[in-house]
Amino acid sequence: MPLTPLSRSLLILALAGTTLTPLCRTALAQEAGATAMQDATGSSTMLDTIVASGGSGGVITADGYVGTSSATGTKVDTPFLQTPQSVSSVTQAQLEDRNPQTLTDALAYTPGTRVGGYGFDPRFDSFTVRGFDVTYTGIFRDNLRQPGAGSSLFKTEPYGLEGVSILRGPSSALYGASGAGGLYNLITKRPTDTPLREVEIQYGTQDRIQGQFDFSGPVNESDPVTYRMTGLARSADTEQVGVPDDRVYLAPALTWKPDEDTRFTLLGEVSRIKTGGTAAYYYDASTGKVSDFFAGNPAFNDSVQNQARIGYEFEHRLNDVFTFRQNARLSTLKTDADWAFAYQPNAVDPLLLDSSAGTFEERLTAGVIDNQIEARFDTGALDHTLLVGLDYTKLRYRSLNGYGVSPPLDTRDPTKGRPVDPIPFQTRTDQDQWQLGAYVQDQIRYDAWTLTLGGRHDWVKTDTDNTTLATNAMTTTKQTDKAFSGRIGLTYEFDFGLAPYASYSTAFSPNAGVNQETGAPFKPTESTQQEVGVKYLIPDLNTLLTAALFNIEQKNGLYYEVVNLPSGPANIQVQRGKLRSRGFELEGVTTLDNGLSVTASYTYTDMKILEGPEGTVGNHVSSVPMHMAALWADYTLPEDGFAAGLGFGAGVRFIGKSYGNDTNTLHNSARALFDAAVHYDFAAIDKKYEGLKLQVNATNLFDRRDAVCSADFCYRDAGRKVVGSLKYSW
């Protein structure tokens, strides 16, 4: 496959005048990815001769809970010890033990990750890291950007994931559009070389019924083709009246591997999600308290999202030096929703609450393609892993909005539906965005030192049309942006598994969507970070300990604030001047031979507004706790002992105090949420039951549902959820 002219030119410039001596690589090493081997002293050291197929999508090499390498931090499979930024992973073993029902459930135990900042809300996978919202700029799928705009956010089905690889801090040197907090790379299930067959049924609280399946393996014994088909169907209510959580999901995948040097993987998905247009509780501004009743209107509260994606990963090793990769994806979603919101007591009858209402239709289509050339060579005593790439993103966003009123909410009967006449669309927004990025990265290894140098230049063009449908009056805004992003990092690996590091990185992110109050498109968000840390992979113990200190500054970030629109108060996206986040993180993960697996973390975050609206400068950003901690442990009893086959899991998530607004006049209390699991493998009774497993998982076991406010909008924590599953694998 020919290189693009720009890729060819960058590669020639990078290698000009250099004598290339190929590093010894074998096809076996290419397939194995990041592996560990015993050296002469018996300690476990990471191979520095890695060329992995995981370089395409960021596949995690792991042993139980402990991830040891991924391509997420560098776009080529690299041991975590050599990546000069804070890295975490949610492995397949963690997903199986905790059985998360949402993406935020899957991420709840990772350091720096704040889930539940908007309380119970099944509409979006919203969360922050190191205090920064990553919902729009930090979600990647298989190492490719997954854009979002307005309410157009792709929903993630955890059952379709092999794992999640997390890179904290600005990371635009390789990835272009990404946020200050970092990026979360969602890794899709891929075809397996060995047959995999699994069916499962689940039943849980709120009449949750779900059936799912996962089949994979070779198409036949002779063809070099493997397949995977994953799917589920769910019908479920939620704790909130008028807010279902229904889903149908199907994800086919196919891998063609004609020889040891070539691999082509096709990844697809179609899904339909039905939930509510809003899930908020009524907040009484006069008392400063969140009520126990729904602020919406059950008779006017539908949201249906249809989404699909099709993409591929192609990799071909040209020779012992060069490997070419091309990853691409086309994705689309369409959302139709109605909403109503009670916002103040009626002037005549205070037991009635005035309610605004609205309807919207949004469509988002995004195409992403990333071309890479990787070169592995040495120059004297220096080993190089050079990556040169060119990627392109095309985004098309359309939004139709209509505003009106809903009959008032009667607090004496808050669950009663109030019919609303159809609301016609009044405004339309059309936005096209193009982004082209060229990047170069060199990982230079000398003895135990690894120097990572990376740079990227992005060119972005955004055209936005805002139309008032009643008059057909249109305003057009054209915006052109460009920026350079970089990263420099240095790591040293001691023989006994300790690896201190230091890095400086920047990020640049164009923003799709518009300010609904002004109609103006959003400016790009820019950020910088300084980070120092240490990672310790304890020899022969399958335990990884990490610690990091960070300082991040961001300008022109997107956040939600309450703004008075013609329809009444609304929580919309706005841009702020400048924010600073400082803190440190601790994490430990282990899976031991005795059946015990543990993940633990602690995060301290001091996030302040340096430039912003009057009355907020110097304050803490709303809903960002200074202290967070999490601990999850799972233990399976010995196979030859009492109650063989039985296992238990338990966890606690602590979220410290925070403010409910940027003026820091509203407070969120600290809370601890407990989770638990129990599982039983029926093979312990008799081998004829091999593959049959029963598991019960509970989140927020004690049903703590405290108020949580963000940007003056208040919600309640998601209540207790219990899900039992019966799975058969063969």
TrEMBL record:
Keywords recorded for this protein, A-Z: Cell outer membrane, Ion transport, Iron, Iron transport, Membrane, Receptor, Signal, TonB box, Transmembrane, Transmembrane beta strand, Transport
Q: Which residues form the TonB-dependent receptor plug domain?
A: 82-182
Q: Which SUPFAM superfamilies match?
A: Porins
| Source domain of life | Bacteria
Major subcellular site:
membrane
The residue ranges flagged as biased composition, category Basic and acidic residues, are: 410-419
Q: How does it sit in the membrane?
A: Multi-pass membrane protein
Q: Where in the cell is it found?
A: Cell outer membrane
Query: Boundaries of each TonB-dependent receptor-like beta-barrel domain copy?
Result: 256-701
Keyword Signal annotated: yes
Which segments cross the bilayer?
none
UniProt keyword Transport, yes or no:
yes
Q: Which Pfam families match?
A: Plug, TonB_dep_Rec_b-barrel
Give the signal peptide, or none: 1-29
Q: Where is this region: Disordered?
A: 406-426
Q: Which family does it belong to?
A: Belongs to the TonB-dependent receptor family.
The record's listing under NCBIfam families reads: PRK14049.1, TonB-siderophor
**Protein name (Swiss-Prot/TrEMBL):** Ferrioxamine B receptor protein
Organism in which the protein naturally occurs: Xaviernesmea rhizosphaerae
Source lineage: Bacteria, Pseudomonadati, Pseudomonadota, Alphaproteobacteria, Hyphomicrobiales
